[in-house]
Amino acid sequence: MFFRGPIRSMNYARFLTAVSAARRPSPIRILTELQQRSPPSLISLAGGAPNPNTFPFQSATIKVKGGEALVLDEPLMKRALQYSGSYGIPELLSWMKDLQKSLHNPPTAGFSPERGQMEMCVTTGSQEGLCKIFEMLVSSGDNVLLDAPTYSGTLAALQPLGCNLINVPSDHHGMIPADLRKILGQWDPAEAQKPGSSIPRVLYTIPNGGNPTGASMTHERKQEVYELARKYDFLIIEDDPYYFLQFQKPWAPTFLSMDVDGRVLRTDSFSKILSSGLRIGFVTGPKPLVERVVLHIQASTMHTSTFTQLMVSQLLHNWGPGGFLKHIDGVIDFYRSQRNSMLSSADKWLKDVAEWHPPMAGMFLWIKLKGIKDTQQLIMERALEKEVLLVPGGVFNINSSDPCPYVRAAFSLSTPQQIDEAFRRLADLIKEAM
Ligand SMILES: Cc1ncc(COP(=O)(O)O)c(C=O)c1O
Q1: Cα 129 to middle of ligand 1, angstroms
Q2: CATH number of the domain residue 390 falls in
Q3: Contact between residue 359 and residue 365 where contact means Cβ atoms under 8 Å apart
Q4: Among 110, 124, 338, 359, which has the highest number of CB atoms less than 10 A from its own CB?
Q5: Domain containing residue 342
Q6: Are residues 206 and 252 in the same domain?
Q7: Domain tally, the chain
Q8: CA distance 79 to 84
């Protein structure tokens, strides 16, 4: 990967909010981490953990489709029911670190810890990671860059922080670097490191199969955005829960894969490929920042459910990386076929009344209704009468009351027949409203 200019030495302290900078490690949690790494001969009177012999659950056998059952025998079940370290259980973390390195080959993997060595932690869904990253980096009054319309969960986490969200224009290939350059042009990059500078310190984007737009960013655009991040010294938050739902191979190179400075925080999710209810995600990024996220975890959830982590870790170890990727291929085949069904039904019913771009990843089709200024009323009041429901696009805008002619249609849950009937009803609705 070629980037102009010398590799930067990042000053991570510059990015932290006062709240995050004030976090201190919990002494009890440090002991738990220590204990986790000690031999079984250690006699610990230190922890305040309860005795798992008093718990009612004894063992579990979980059937896996077409594979070996997961067996949590009594000793493992005791572990599953007990507190564990805040980074995540070691065997899951190391499996994920290996996967991350093999998928993204991050330059930061070879850095020293202070320079921003690649680190990871397990989170209770990627939403937890995002929310904690925002709290770590965004203070009231800060300028934050993102490409709206965007995931409503991101807006819900960011907006209460009182920041100023700057919308970078985007199209079906994601954020447009020329527009980002124009926006940043109002600042002098030499000011970036100065205390009190209003240059944004954070850019957030969903690079694959965006929610709600279905947009996927090209490699070239990512490189241009990364160049700008280097010039203006901001961090990139790569929220990529649809990475494993890319319909075409090879998968697009990620921001993490081009991170020569240590300025990318990446959130991954198992919600779309293993289970959404188990709540498991990962933060990957420079160690000094991931450490801060973990301090926040220590003070809130303490850790993601040990049971969940052991269950997932056993599955991944049984599968190996090859088995994992084979499973993903099956998931992708399903979503690709669902996407194709939705596209052919859209062609059949909506051609004259709407516009869209075929998504290359994810589970959403973003549809612009012709001749309709705002879809809010149409969906909330009239669509239910016709027994069809979609999400009005406005909820994904920075200002949700701005008129928006788009709707989001998910192709994850409905059958091709249901999708076809839904679009027939939607076409009727639009024609009546035009
Ligand atoms: C863009 C985006 N980020 C994050 C999330 C949160 O996912 P998780 O279930 O991993 O918390 C979602 C969920 O839909 C999403 O669409």
Answers
A1: 10
A2: 3.90.1150.10
A3: yes
A4: 359
A5: 329-432
A6: yes
A7: 2
A8: 8
399: number of Cβ within 10 Å: 11
3-state helix, strand, coil in the chain (%, to 5): 45, 15, 40
Asked if residue 286 is part of any domain, the answer here is yes
Give the per-residue pLDDT at 7. 75
Distance 126 CA to ligand 1 centre (A): 6
Residue 427 burial (10 A CB sphere; 0-12, 13-18, 19+): buried
Q: Does residue 125 have its Cβ closer than 6 Å to ligand 1?
A: yes
Q: Which of 131, 271, 282, 412 to mutate to test the pocket of ligand 1 (most atoms within 8 A of CB)?
A: 271
Give burial (CB, 10 Å; 0-12/13-18/19+) of 240.
Answer: buried
Give the dihedral of Cα atoms 189, 194, 196, 199; nearest 10 deg: 20
Work out the average pLDDT over 336-346.
98
Same domain, residue pair 284 and 355? no
Instruction: Say what the pTM is.
Output: 0.96
| 355 shares a domain with 288 | no
What is the predicted pLDDT for the residue at 113? 95
Contact 215, 173 (CB under 8 A): yes
Centroid of ligand 1 to alpha carbon of 130 (angstroms)? 9
The verdict on residue 69 lying in a domain is no
Tens digit of pLDDT for each residue in 239-253?
A: 999 999 999 999 999
